[in-house]
């Protein structure tokens, strides 16, 4: 499957028909993909979808069975990982426990046998970028999870790569720290101006951070687009369900296709609305979420529809109780016909 980058831009990463199997089991199946320079691009999917394998192929830690990976137009087939203009930040951060923070950041530069003065200068600048300048003499075990992440990022960026590859970089952080780190990573990409390619299984994480997303399943790319495109216009049931909650109506579209309506697009009323497509049902649970309430309506045929209502909408209803007869409807523009 081919997924192009932004129109008119030469891709910094071009993946052409790449396939990879392990023990005869396909992990990546003939993927073609363009990633534009300066994008924050996310590979997202469930465990086993092939996203980490694809990232490792870009990094050079795995060799494709077939196909090519080009960076700035140059085929990377003969280049080992250390000779590619990329750096990778691992989920575990992979910091050397016996080295200080400064020595961890300096490691790649020392492997390249850079001059001592240059190494000291670049390490200091990288640590200062992440407000870790005073932590250079500490060991990794003396740092918090968020601080270890910053050191790993400093080490990844100190070599000035064209592309930063991130494998589930926020998975080890707690919820509040993860949300803060999301904002920091987006701001960092804007500040340094390089291409970020990140793997995550977390839909919300991808939606909040990426300029574009590739949704993967069973080693293939299902759909590529902006977060808004994937949410508002999914092409398949899988994509519709993966990004948010979807009300799906089988045999309701052209050619007996499936129609999707997001819960926030569903209108709820106690009286029959003046709409020919309104459906009647019985109100079940009403789940309060703070900034919204989700109403579960069982239609006459037994199907359950979710309607997500704002506090103002709920206030207009007054009292709602399980068992109330209600009606659901939506604007024609809210209904999306899925192609698969």
TrEMBL record:
Family indicated by similarity: Belongs to the ABC transporter superfamily.
BP terms from Gene Ontology: putrescine transport
Protein name, UniProt field: ABC transporter ATP-binding protein
Function: Involved in beta-(1-->2)glucan export. Transmembrane domains (TMD) form a pore in the inner membrane and the ATP-binding domain (NBD) is responsible for energy generation.
Domain ABC transporter: 13-243
PANTHER family (UniProt xref): PUTRESCINE TRANSPORT ATP-BINDING PROTEIN POTG (PTHR42781:SF5), SPERMIDINE/PUTRESCINE IMPORT ATP-BINDING PROTEIN POTA (PTHR42781)
Lineage: Bacteria, Pseudomonadati, Pseudomonadota, Alphaproteobacteria, Hyphomicrobiales
GO molecular function, one term: ATP hydrolysis activity
GO cellular component terms, A-Z: ATP-binding cassette (ABC) transporter complex
UniProt entry tagged with the keyword Glycoprotein: no
Top-rank taxon, per record: Bacteria
Keywords: ATP-binding, Cell inner membrane, Cell membrane, Membrane, Nucleotide-binding, Translocase, Transport
